[in-house]
Each structure stands twice: as structure tokens, then as C-alpha cells.
Design a protein that fits this description.
heterodimer; A: 305 residues; alpha/beta; 4-stranded antiparallel beta sheet; B: 243 residues; Rossmann fold; 2 domains; 6-stranded mixed beta sheet; 9 helices
Chain lengths: 305, 243
């Protein structure tokens, strides 16, 4: 059973193509991740699905309701957390929550069970104005406000952008609990490492979806041979590797450099080349690709340009 | 290469009874890439604002490029570069106009501005866009341009506050290539980031927790001290310990 269905959506702003032929489905109760950098079209897609923006063509539905014909029905059953902080800065934590509950003709008491785990973390600050909360607290309050009417589908547009790794981790723990309660979640993020927390992901770049699948399937479809390389002088290594013709890509990854070898090249050739360049303490080891390796490989694939 | 560009000693900033920065002491060498990490609200922004001469400390000492952070704030501003994810370039000015504007602010001569503008545009391959408005450029290009502009006056140090947030993974790495090049010619780099893989690219990293610097060292030292496989684990360890 699908919660969200999107078919051949196009959207342009004047000459700029924001979305080109986007199609996918999100299953009920799934955490679906839309992963891509700023400007990829993530927010445009969210705004179309939450009935705040009209598409140019194509069709889309949420829980069986058409995003244009049935926009009122959709607004009652979704929760939306926009990328920019959406709360009223001059209202307190409690007032914000009450306000959103009232809009949906419900009360905090009726829905307390759903938000309890999250709300208890900000309850000590319930008399504080939203504008004076720290980033992590604001994010928790915004999530509570998006949940207060017990939505069937939750749209979270970059909820973790600019949030430190610890708070990001906590946020994802909360999402898992919401999923267990049967809520469908569509979430976008520029942090590739968060892909592993989604059931399925769509990799989006420049208004086009490069791939949709589970993380495992995307990673196992990575073409070519990936190696991690390290030497005593990483700065020189980074520049030297870019000069080696047997490599199709070379990117720094933390303390290693990931290289993808062209056919008929092996690690011995790299070793020889680096020794010739004067490197010492060279380490080369075969590597399982991660989501960022895949994303960059897809970005460089001419089909996706 | 052993000259210290930043030296701080017990640098402290209080807002009322709240201690945003609590006796932080560290130094950054010429040409060093120094990662300044910490959770949201740990006090990083307050520290950067003091180091850039924008707010005065409550107590403690610091010099930036030899200038005192109490007395010489105007000289500090001329000798540093700054860019952040939130604010970098003027969107309604063109590429060329932004270069000229910042060149003027940093008191470069018209001749220098002209030369550097040409060089900078050439290096970034922006020739065809030099008369385009910044808002028409993709974010990745903007951030690379903002960085190049922030160092066009050859400052002693450049402060980068989350320069790569939201940037695609390929551009993020190109951005670090630019950082390495700048550090290679002697510009110190002071950088904050929420990408823990980027912490590995720094020569040394400091980890700020609740206003204090809880740990400082090379990524390798920190990982072995906290028995962690990655900087992400080091971060979790330190930031969690605070709660």
C-alpha cells in the first residue's frame, strides 16, 4: 500500500528547471529519505506534496488524495516541518504547541501520548519563548507541533541541517519511534550518512532523481574497484593522485583518499606511482563503497548531467 | 612556519551569569588548518566573534596576527578573512562586483583589485559568469567564490564558519582543495563544521563542550586518546559526556 504516489512531476521557476520528471512511491509506514545538496529540488518537491505549491505537470497524491483537487483533505492528515524554523518566536514553547493544536481543532491533552517522549525533553522550558531556544530544542518543538494533530504522513524538510552530530543522532531515534507508531515519514537531508537510517532513499541532484532504492542495493550497484589510500603526506597525496591516469575518480574521505581504479589497473601500479612521487608509509586497501562514494559516482555519470 | 597567528589564554566571555566561553586557551600556527568543533550552543560562535574583533572578551588574553583583541580590533579586521554558510556574498551584486566590493573594504588598490579579480575568476573557471548575479549561481560555486574572495587580500588567517553546510559532496571536496592550497601558501585556516569526515582534514582539532575546550590535538591523537575509530565517535564521546 502506498502513502505517497508521484508521477512525472515537472516544475520550473521561469527558466530554471527545479524538478524534471520525478516519479516515485512511498509505502505506508516507511521512512523515505530524499538525499541531495542544496538546490537539488528537495524543498520544491516538499511544497508540492504539502499542497503549498502547484506543479507544472504530472500527478501526485498523498494517502489517496490528489495534491490539487483534495488539498484540504491532505492538509488535515499531514504534518510538515519546513526547513526554515517555522514556529512563532514570540510565543512560548507551550503557546506554540497550543496554537498548532487549536488550528487542527484538537488539544495537547488528546494527543499527549504521541508527543510525550519528545515533549518531556523540552517541557522544563515550556514558559520560554521559542526564539530563545537552542537549535536542538527548536527542532524538537517543531517536531511536536508537526505531530500534534496525529498526522498520517510526516514531511520533514532538512530537519537536521546545521545540527551537531549528537543532536542529529537523537532526532533519528525519535523518527524511528514514530515509524513504529505507523506514521509514514518523508525526510530530506544533505547529510549522506543519514541514508543508512532510512528504509529507502532517493538520490536527487539538479532537479533529477539519480537513483531510488534501499541503501544496500545502491551500494552494491557501485561499479568499478574502490580503494582507500593513505600516505605520510596526505596533502601531496591528494594532488598527486589527481595526476594519475589509471584512476577514474579520487576524493578525500576523512583520513583516507578513496580512488576508483580504471580497468586493467591494479593497486601495484598505484603503489609504484606513489613511490616514484616520493611518498612513504603508503597504505592501499580495497574498500566497500559508502553512500557518498555512490552519490559522487552517480553525479559524474553522464546520464545524470 | 612556527609563528603563532592566534594565541589565546584563559579567554572568557560572560553574558550576565551565563558563561559562553570559559577560559579557553589555544594557539594556531601559520599555515595550520585548525578545526574548531563542538555541539550547537557550545560557544563556538561567541569565540569566533571575539577572535574576529566583533565583541570584547570579559577576561583573558588573545592576539590575532600579533594584534591585541581588546585594543587593536580594527587592525585585526583588516588582517583576517571571514566566510560562513549564512553570510558570504551579496546576492544582488555580480561576481565581479563582489570581488571589487570586498577588495575595496580590505583597502586593496584599484590596480590590485583588477589583477586579483582576473586571476581569481580564472582560477575558479568563472569567466563566463563574471557578470552574473550571485543569486543565479549554484550554492557550490558561490561558496568556492566566497572563500576565494575572503582570502583575496592575503590575510594571515581566514575564519570559516560551517562553509560547506548543504554543499554537494563533490563540491565539498573541491572546497577543501582550496583550503589546502591557501594553507600551503601560509594562510592559517580556522574552520567549524558538522561533517565529521572534515574534522579529519584538519591539522589539529579542538572540541568545545559547554563553553570549555575539552580536548585538543591531531585527529590521530584524539582518536587514540578516546579509543575511537573515527572523529564522529570522538565527538559523541565528548559531547555525550557533557550531558
Amino acid at each position: 500500500m502506498n502513502s505517497i504516489e508521484i508521477k512525472n512531476i515537472y516544475k520550473s521557476y521561469k527558466d530554471a528547471k527545479a524538478l524534471e520528471n520525478i516519479s516515485f512511491e512511498v509505502k505506508k509506514g516507511e521512512i523515505f529519505g530524499l538525499i541531495g545538496p542544496d538546490g537539488a529540488g528537495k524543498t520544491t518537491l516538499f511544497r508540492i506534496l504539502t499542497t503549498l505549491l502547484l506543479k507544472d505537470s504530472g500527478s501526485a497524491s498523498v494517502e489517496g488524495f490528489d495534491v490539487e483537487k483534495d488539498y484540504k483533505a491532505i492538509r488535515n492528515i499531514i504534518g510538515y516541518m519546513p526547513g526554515r524554523f517555522s514556529l512563532y518566536q514570540d510565543l512560548t514553547v507551550e503557546e506554540n504547541l497550543k496554537f498548532f493544536a487549536t488550528i487542527f481543532d484538537t488539544s495537547i491533552e488528546d494527543n499527549y501520548e504521541l508527543i510525550k517522549d519528545i515533549y518531556v525533553q523540552i517541557e522544563p522550558f515550556r514558559k520560554r519563548k521559542a526564539g530563545q531556544l537552542s537549535g536542538g530544542m527548536k527542532q524538537k518543538l517543531a517536531l511536536c507541533c508537526a505531530l500534534i494533530h496525529q498526522p498520517k504522513v510526516l514531511f520533514l524538510d532538512e530537519p537536521t541541517t546545521g545540527v551537531d552530530p549528537v543532536s542529529r543522532h537523537e532526532f533519528w531515534e525519535m523518527l524511528k519511534k514514530l515509524k513504529d507508531k505507523g506514521i509514514t515519514i518523508m525526510v530530506s537531508t544533505p547529510y549522506m550518512d543519514e541514508a543508512s537510517l532510512c528504509d529507502r532513499i532517493a538520490l536527487i541532484q539538479s532537479g533529477r532523481i539519480m537513483r531510488i532504492d534501499t541503501l544496500d542495493n545502491i551500494v552494491s550497484a557501485f561499479p568499478g574497484n574502490l580503494y582507500a589510500v593513505k600516505s605520510g603526506n596526505m596533502i601531496a597525496l591528494n594532488f598527486d593522485l589527481k595526476d594519475f591516469s589509471g584512476i577514474s575518480s579520487s576524493y578525500i574521505f576523512g583520513e583516507y583518499i578513496h580512488i576508483s581504479l580504471k580497468k586493467d589497473n591494479d593497486e601495484n601500479m598505484i603503489m609504484e606511482f606513489l613511490k616514484m612521487k616520493g611518498h612513504s608509509d603508503i597504505e592501499i586497501s580495497k574498500l566497500q563503497p559508502g553512500i557518498e562514494d555512490c552519490f559522487m559516482e552517480l553525479m559524474n555519470n553522464p546520464e545524470n548531467r | 612556519m612556527n609563528e603563532d597567528i592566534i594565541i589565546t589564554e584563559d579567554l572568557t566571555k560572560k553574558f550576565g551569569s551565563f558563561i559562553a566561553c570559559d577560559k579557553i586557551s589555544f594557539s594556531v600556527k601559520k599555515g595550520e588548518i585548525f578545526g574548531f568543533l563542538g555541539a550547537n550552543g557550545a560557544g563556538k560562535t561567541t569565540a569566533i566573534r571575539m577572535l574576529c574583533g566583533l565583541i570584547l572578551p570579559t577576561s583573558g588574553k588573545a592576539t590575532i596576527g600579533g594584534f591585541d583583541i581588546y585594543k587593536d580590533t580594527e587592525k585585526i579586521k583588516l588582517n583576517i578573512g571571514y566566510m560562513s554558510q549564512k553570510f558570504s556574498l551579496y546576492e544582488d551584486l555580480t561576481v565581479k562586483e563582489n570581488i571589487q566590493f570586498y577588495g575595496g573594504i580590505y583597502r586593496l588598490s584599484p590596480k590590485d583589485i583588477k589583477e586579483r579579480s582576473k586571476q581569481l575568476i580564472g582560477e575558479l573557471g568563472l569567466e563566463s559568469s563574471e557578470n552574473s548575479l550571485i543569486k543565479s549561481l549554484p550554492l557550490g560555486w558561490r561558496q568556492k567564490l566566497a572563500f576565494s574572495i575572503a582570502i583575496q587580500h592575503e590575510p594571515k588567517i581566514v575564519f570559516l564558519d560551517e562553509p560547506t553546510s548543504g554543499v554537494d559532496p563533490v563540491t565539498r571536496r573541491q572546497f577543501w582543495d582550496l583550503i589546502y592550497k591557501a594553507a600551503g601558501r601560509g594562510i592559517s585556516v580556522f574552520v567549524t563544521t558538522h561533517y565529521m569526515d572534515e574534522a579529519e582534514y584538519c591539522g589539529r582539532v579542538s572540541m568545545m563542550v559547554a563553553g570549555k575546550i575539552e580536548a585538543m590535538g591531531t585527529p590521530k591523537e584524539l582518536k587514540s586518546r578516546f579509543n575511537s575509530g573515527s572523529m564522529y565517535e570522538v565527538f559523541l564521546h565528548l559531547a555525550r559526556g557533557a550531558k
